[in-house]
Amino acid sequence: MDFKKLVAERIAENIELPIEKVEELIEIPPKSDMGDFAFPCFQLSKTLRKAPVAIASELNEKINKEGFEKVENLGPYLNFFIDKEVFAKSTLEKIISEGDKYGNSNIGEGKNVAVEYSSPNIAKPFHVGHLFSTAIGNSLYKIMNSQGYNCVRLNHLGDWGTQFGKLISAYKKWVDEEALEKEPIKELLRIYVKFHDEAEKDPSLEDEGRMYFKRLEEGREEETKLWERFKELSLKEFNKVYKMLNVEFDSYNGESFYGDKMDAVVEEIQQKGLLTDSNGAKVVMLEEYNMPPCIIKKSDGATIYATRDLAAAMYRKKTYDFYKSIYVVGLEQSLHFKQVFTTLKLMGHEWAEDCKHIGFGLVRFSDKKLSTRKGEVIFLEDLLKESIDKTMEVIKEKNNDLENKEEVAKKVGIGAVIFTYLKNNRERDIVFSWDEMLSFDGETGPYVQYSYARAKSILRKLGDVSGEVDYSKLSSKEEFELIKTLEGFNNSIIYAIDKLEPSIITRYVIDVAKGFNKFYNQYSIINAEDEETKKARLKLVQSTCVVIKNALDLLGIEVVEEM
Ligand code: ARG
Fold first, then answer.
1. How distant, in Å, are the alpha carbons of 59, 270, 490 from that of 479?
2. What is the dihedral of CA 537, 538, 540, 544, to 10 degrees?
3. Which positions fall inside the Arginyl tRNA synthetase N-terminal domain (predicted)?
4. pLDDT at residue 32, rounded to an integer
5. Residue whose CA is closest, atom 11 of ligand 1?
6. Which of 20, 22, 405, 472 could covalently link to 85 via disulfide, CB atoms 3.0 to 4.6 Å apart?
7. Among 430, 455, 289, which residue's Cα sits nearest to residue 367?
C-alpha cells in the first residue's frame, strides 16, 4: 500500500490543491516519533489568508483518518502516523508474493540504454582500477534492468592505438615464447615496460613503434597476425576474471572495431566546417568551451582515441537508438569525454546530451597510485584470489564444520571486494584495507551476507509459516523501522538510477542488515511470547531475506545460505 499517496489523497480532499502538488509537498519527518509523513502548511497560508499553524489544526479536525494510527498537528505541520498493522501486512505480503521480483517496476519500458563498462586494454593487466568500472557498470546495468530499461552491455576494449606498434617492436626483440604461453599478460607487460626503458636511452625505438602501428593500420599481414594473437591471449585472461565476477557483455566491440568507421566521421566533421589544421594535425577547436582542441588526426595521419570514440558514439546511436548512453570510465578521462560530447553537439547531434560520463575515483593500496607504466600493478585476479583465501581463513576459524567452505569463501571473498568498490559515492577514492573489507561487523559485504545467512538459518530451523498471520504483533519500534526500510527498496532503486550511483543500493542494504540485527538482537523468534508473535516475526525474517538477496543481486553479489 502506498501510504504517501493515501496521505496526499486525504489532504487533497480538503484543500484547493491538485493531488500531485500535495504529494510533492509531503515530507518525511526528521524523527520517527514525529510521524511517518508530514504535510507542511506554509504554502496554503497565502491563498487561505491564515497562519500555517491555524491551517494545520483546522485540517486535522476535518481529515479522514482511516488507515492511520493517528494524525497530529505540530506547529505548521500535519503529521501522519500510519497504521502499523495495515502497513506491515501490505508490505510483507507484497515482498513475499513478489519474491525475486520485489523492487522491480517497468518505468523504463521501451527505453534503450547503452551501458559501457570495464573496457580493459589488450596486452595490459586487468587491474584494480578496471574493477571499479566493471563493478559500477554491472551494477548500473542490473539496477536499470530491474526497472524495465532495455540495456545493452558494451565492453569498449582498448585494442587499438600506437602502443600496439611499440608492443610489436618489443615482441620482435625480446619475447620469451614460453612465458608468453604460460602467463601472457605478464610477459606482454614485461616487454612493454622494457620497451619504455630502452626507448629512454634510444629514442629511435619510438619511431620504430610508430612504423609498426602504421603497418598495422594498413592491415599488413604480419602485424595483424601478431595483434590478433595479443588480443586472443588477453581476452582469455579477461574472461577468467569476468567469470569469477559473474559479469557478462552483449558486445566486445573495442576500439579496433571502429577502424573502418572513422573516415566517415572525419569527413562529416570536415563537411560541417569544424576541422582545423594545427601544426599538421587535424583538430576541432573548443576554446569557446574553455577546452583544449579535440584532436581528430595526428600529424602522421594516425587516428586517435577521441576519433574512435566519436565513431563509437555514432555507431551506438545508430545501432541501439539509445535513450541514454552511459560511459563508466575513471574521472581522469573527464576532459576527454567533454571534448567528445561537445564535438558531437557541434556536429549537430542533439543526442550528445544523452551521452553521460559516469566517473569514479582512484584505487589505492598502501598509498600507491596504480599504474601500468612502471610495472607496479596489482592484477585483479591475484587480488580476488587473495580475498578468497583470506575469507577461507576466517571461515575456518569461525565455522570449521561448514560443508561447502570453498564455495562460500568464493562468494564472500569476491562479494567483499565488490562491496568495497560500491560502498561509497563513486567519485571518492578507495583505499584498500583487508581488515576493514573482510570484517564481519563493519559496513561490509561479509556483514550483510552474514546477516542473510543468520536469517536463513532461523527460517531453516522454524520452517514455513502457514495460515493467517496477525501483523499487529509487529508493533515494536525495531520491527516497524525494519518494515519501513524494506518498503523503501524501490524508492532507493529509483534514486540510484537518478544519480547513476550504485552506492545508494549499497547503503540501503547496509540499512536493511542493521535494521534486521537490531530487531534480531532485541526480540527472540524461537522463544517468542506466543505462537502468533512468532509467526509474524518469521514473516518479517522471510521478507528481510528476500530484500537482502535482491539488493545484493543489484550489486552483482551473491548470497550464501550458511557461513
Ligand atoms: N580502455 C580505456 C582504459 O583502460 C577505457 C576506455 C573507456 N571508454 C571509452 N569509450 N573511451 O583507460
1. 30, 65, 19
2. 140
3. 1-82
4. 84
5. 309
6. 472
7. 430
Superfamily of domain 112-364: HUPs (3.40.50.620)
Q: Choose among 304, 330, 259: nearest CA to 116.
A: 330
Active site residues per annotation: 124, 127, 130
> Grid coordinates standing for 526?
524461537
Ligand 1 centroid from CA 157, angstroms: 7
- pLDDT tens for 465-491 read 888 999 999 989 999 999 999 999 999
Count Cβ neighbours within 10 Å for each residue of 512-529 and write b for 16 or more, e otherwise: bbbbbbebbeebebeebe
d(Cα 352, Cα 343) in Å, to the nearest integer? 9
CA distance 185 to 203: 25
* Atom of ligand 1 lying closest to residue 158 CA: 1
- Comparing CA positions, the residue from 190, 235, 195, 233 lying closest to residue 213 is 195
Closest approach atom of ligand 1 to CA 124:
4
**Best mutation site among 155, 156, 337 for ligand 1, i.e. most ligand atoms within 8 A of its Cβ?**
156
- Cβ-in-10-Å burial (0-12, 13-18, 19+) of 103 comes to buried
All CATH 3.40.50.620 domain ranges in the chain, comma separated: 112-364
The DSSP line for 355-380 is EEEE----EEETTEE--STTS---BH
C-alpha cell at 92: 510483507
The structure's pTM equals 0.92
From the alpha carbon of 129, which atom of ligand 1 is closest? 4
What residues does ligand 1 touch, defined as CB less than 6 Å away?
116, 119-121, 156, 158, 309, 312, 327, 329
- Residue nearest (by alpha carbon) to ligand 1 atom 6: 119
> Do residues 359 and 116 touch, judged by C-beta distance below 8 A?
no
The alpha carbon dihedral of 292, 294, 297, 303 has a sign of positive
* Cα 155 to ligand 1 centroid, rounded to whole Å: 9
Write the pLDDT tens digit of every residue in 303-352. 789 999 999 999 999 999 999 999 999 999 999 999 999 999 999 999 99
CB-based contact 340:128 (threshold 8 Å)? no
Q: What is the atom index within ligand 1 of the atom nearest the CA of 157?
A: 1
Q: Report which ligand 1 atom has the smallest distance to the Cα of 336.
A: 11
Q: Whose CA is nearest to atom 3 of ligand 1?
A: 120
The one-letter code for the residue type at 434 is: W
CATH number for the region 3-82 comes to 3.30.1360.70
- Helix and strand element counts for the chain (H, E): 22, 13
CATH 3.30.1360.70 boundaries in the chain: 3-82
Distance in angstroms (rounded) separating the CA atoms of residues 249 and 328: 14
Question: How far, in Å, is the centroid of ligand 1 from the Cα of 447?
Answer: 33
Cα(312) to ligand 1 centroid in Å equals: 12
Query: In angstroms, what is the span from residue 489 Cα to ligand 1's centroid?
Result: 33
Q: Tens of pLDDT along 217-254?
A: 899 999 999 999 999 999 999 999 999 999 999 999 99
